[in-house]
Protein: Adenosine 5'-phosphosulfate reductase
Amino acid sequence: MSVSAVSLAGGGAAPKKATQLYDRPSVDHDAKRQEARALLQRAAAEGGVTQASSLGAEDVVITHLINALGLDIPVFVLETGMLHHETLALLERTQAASRAPVKVYRPQQEAVIQFIRTHGQDAMYRSIELRKACCSIRKMEPLGRALAGQRGWITGLRREQSQARANVGLVDTSEVATKGLTKYNPLANWTWGDVWHYIATEGVDYNPLHDRFYPSIGCAPCTRAIALGEDFRAGRWWWEAEDAKECGLHVKSQPDQTRNGGQRAAPSPAAASNTGAQA
Structure:
């Protein structure tokens, strides 16, 4: 989905920050905040849960909520060895500022070296199979270690993000989509504008790549900025067909029978002035 069109700073004006471009809350934003808080409190009470953070806009909101509520929920980040410098800098700041522990998981170095020796540094561009093999080594294997012994995990999935995520529910127990665990998605009903309203009003630290029209941020070789009117995830694996753009961490969920008609829209880079953006 593409997002509502936004006007860029025109003429010789300085470029606007993401907090200026995308801060467009829904009319029921406060209710969505309370819903997210309640779900995180429930997850903490049930125990055995951890937050999976890519350090993207949604995830920094969730980590901020966890800290603000004083919840016993650890956070983990998959440091693939290919992240942007800006993401690594944010990781350091997050570890220093977060009350909740932030643990880093890295891929097995031997597997990375063998993959590069066999297929080359840029193998991901040659085929979907090789790209997914790279994701498996750099993301999926470390994810398995991060989730070992856990009952559930918390993600920043939102329905607005892509067609494949349109049925995401607040709580997902479908085995394939959740790696056999309970998956909590506290921002499932939030719009991109809701996410950035929270970041703006709470002063949450975020990745400066968002200011340069990177709404979805992954590994550096596989992420680019998006253009006005492009889909929210158009900058991820942009050389592939639209329906292939997942790495395996999040598999398409079954339709959520409890959804309450949360808003939809997806952000495009410059999309955010008079009409409000999404993500």
